[in-house]
Amino acid sequence: VRMLPRAFRQSRSLHLLLCALRVQSTWATASGVPRRIARTLPAFSNNATPMKFLTQQEAKEVDEELMGPRIGFRLEQLMELAGQSVANAAALVYDAAKTRVLVVCGPGNNGGDGLVAARHLSHFGFAVQVVVPKPYRDDKFFFHALLSQLRAMDIPIRNELPSDVDAVADVIVDAIFGFSFAGSVRPPFDHVLNSIRSSTARVVSVDVPSGWDVERGDTAGVGLCPDVLVSLTAPKLCAKAFTGRHFVGGRFVPRQLAESFGLELPPFPGTCTVVEVPKPA
User: Fold this and answer.
1) What is the Cα–Cα distance from 200 to 155, expressed in whole angstroms?
2) CB-neighbour burial class of residue 278 (10 A; exposed 0-12, middle 13-18, buried 19+)
3) Residue 250: which region, alpha, beta or left (left: phi > 0; alpha: psi -120 to 50)?
4) Nearest of 220, 214, 217 to residue 234 by alpha carbon
5) What DSSP element (H or E) covers 62?
6) What is the pTM assigned to this prediction?
7) Do residues 91 and 99 lie in contact, with contact meaning Cβ atoms separated by under 8 Å?
8) pLDDT given for residue 180 in this prediction
């Protein structure tokens, strides 16, 4: 790395490359890594204590603790950290120079994560468009501030999905429903999910694939089938049914909180804000 030009050493491209290498190295078994290197890598493997998957109630309790008086995060802080993690994961999987991204945002906090991710993806060099199928209420001031930030970057914002999704997007970021989702999918999101399901674009889901029961998975058969899942804070129970590339993002959980909930989070490599979870053996 020291032999590379200074401009490249300081660039975002090199940071993402090193993160990708560290993500792969972190999950390598000791037998497949030179001994000198293996000692410096975090020890987390399929043989370690199993990572905990949260129920819907546990996910709510973790969020309440993070934003409670003892820890003191603000919702806006967590949304920024989560959205950047989603963007970082997508940038590790897809080539910014060749990828058009459509970020579809729901009415809740998951949608806010998507708005943040859209901004970061644009900074990373992706061609980004945003869809907000249901307008945010006037009292959601922070969401409107996030939209203003996108407009300031000339990121197009739509109220409806384009008639031909594949004509404008190679990757769709699914930031529609999060861990608070319950019940059936109602308009206009039923049409949104159907359109995404019929598209050939790759899908990156934020925290929970939209349409899935948070604990049982796609029980209704109307949910999305993402290629990439970015679990935020900790995976939800439904992620056990996910078979694609799975990342944990959001490097902000205090150790005491993780221990009190028994989260057993994977180690984040280097300065990365996401880490890829190995598939079960």
Assistant:
1) 23
2) middle
3) left
4) 214
5) helix 56-66
6) 0.84
7) no
8) 86
